[in-house]
Amino acid sequence: MRRIKQTVFILLCFFSALYGMGAAYRAELTPSNLNTFRTEGFYHDGWLAADARLELPGLLFRGNRLEMVFNSWRPTGAGGAQLEIKVCGRIVSRLNVGEQQKQVAYLRGKCSPRIVEFHTLNPVRVSGDTRILGVQFKRMTVTSRFGVPLLDWKALTIAVLALICLGYLLSLVFPVQGAGLHIAVVPVVSYFFLRTAVSSNDLWNLSTLWFFCATLLTGMAVSGRMSYAEKQTGQGSLRPYLLSIIVLAGFSIRFYGIDFGLPDHYHPDEVAKVNHVLRMLASGDLNPHYFLHPSLLLYLTLINSKILTFLYPAAELRQTVILAGRLVSVLAGTFSIYLTYLIGSYLYSARTGLIAAAVLAFLPLHVTCSRYIKEDVLLTFFILASLAAILKSVKEDRRGFLFLAGLAAGLSMSVKYSGALCLLIIAAAPWIRSKSFKPDRVYLKVTAFALLMVPLGFILGTPYSVLDFSGFIKGVLYEKQHMLKGHSVAINAWSQFWMYHLRRSILPGMTFITSSFAMIAFGFILYRRRWQGLLLIGIILLFYLPAEFVKAKPAPQPERYILPVLPFLSLSAAHFVDTLWNAGRIKIALIISVMIVFSPCFRSLELASEIRADTRLKMKRFMQMHIPRGSKILVDWEVYSPDLSGEYKHVKYLERKNIFNSLTEKRLRESGYDYLILSSLFYDRYFSQPGQNAAIREIIREVFRKFPVVVEFRPRFGTYGFHNPVLTLFDLKARKIPVKSDE
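Now predict its structure.
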């Protein structure tokens, strides 16, 4: 009976993948949607050129057919179109369209993509049209005897194995009893998800959703099968030294390269903040007149710049302000490591705290953001400070710390408006105190007063929210619309299966290995249902879900929105390791500890190794050596490309609102300029981000196709954050350059 159930389940998985992926395949081509497939010689009025070509990707080598519906009309006397169809270079059909409007061609062949060529033996010219035409089509549809296209066996096999894996993990967590119908949920639900995956982006999101479900179920399965005992670890004589080493290492890697790009600006968002601080310094007016974000980061930058100016009076003021602002983030990121340790030791043990601190110390996303004058690292610091104060209050019954927690929550709001979510953490204090679903009554009253400290903290950090109320409200409403409507392109959470930030932010920002164990730990603590774990899960969801919900995910670094989640994912992974240790699986715990710490450490060191030798600096040096000073140069975007204003008299940065019109082949050739620089920080979003205009991608592709490349600089370890874009120098006048370099 068990074998029958397994066979039925495997068959369900097979048909789920077959029909789900087949239904998602964009099988129909009409004159109005020629962008569905790559075509040549297909026109929007339905006509095919005498020689036309269609590429069909991802199909099985046999079993598919192309059903074609033609318009039999042709000019008088031309007769019916005689059509020869080749698939993978082999003739599969010869048709007379005049005899029958609907035709079929079988798509047998092993070429990938499947190339279908249409050759009209008796082409015609239509009156008033210069084109040489073959036949006019109404519709072409890829199908099979199963009613859907049959996809490549590799993709189908991977999908089936993925579904079987999920079913197996589900059976481990919820053992099959009786008919085991609950396991059938996997292929049934997966079918509906698969049929929505109409693009490669959708398939990547589905793969990420599968990854999340698989790791979650793995953690739950491990938790259900592992016996463990709670052990309280002592302080240990080495722990203060280990913590000091971790914090010092975290500070060092954040501080290294803090002067990146100077004296140029490589981060566009820093420019506006620096300008506001410089204006306040020059005028003495502390009203920032800027409320798209609260003011605390600006004020801390201002204070820090005064200190640095006092210490280094000869330094150039603008660079001093930039370094002062970046130093605020470095210090906030460093103190966040220590606070993560405190929270881990309060919730679980000192060992959990140490491992979590070590993980956070080297996470590439946290390290990278700790060098920017941006709100996210400082926001994360105050969130951690608020939670640490709550835990100290409830653990030691020191209610005064609850008021400090409220103040820290208010300051988090004064860094970024999303810090308002901290109110929910403060409000949870009575339940954290009772460690149950029944709140501590005494702490209910204390918490009510502690919540009053939140607006006080906000006003302390952003006083002109009261003193310039109209300007403040205007800025808040603008930012609200920005978040809800999106940044140039609105990215809906449901269209990404709520996996946008897991795929694009957490996985690269923590590295795959560390992210995997964090997700396993998520399932592990969810299955255990202890109050500490539920608190961690609640905070993770509290900051993850809003980041997914808002439609603004601005490239090139939308991942910064997820920064507050990282310490709590680190704590989850650390607790998982600590539990393995306490259960006697010390070798496994040590191996996992090394993996989750050293994987992000290596990645952060790789990125740091290139932070000073940025590709913009390499391009600038190359041009100084090989491009004549009298040359006229077009640049796509000022901060994403090297600053050449001091090197060349004729440098033009393309106007942002008309940039794509300026990048057409005709406009570039008529511009009178000699060279063009394109940066991947500008154009990559149109290829990697969902919902982008295909016409824009084609304009950029045309530049690469039509103009010779003089030099292209690529970072060895990839572009990350605002560092090391791929830079390409094009010759707009097609002259020969003796030097060609590719790094």
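Residues 2-23+152-225 form one domain.
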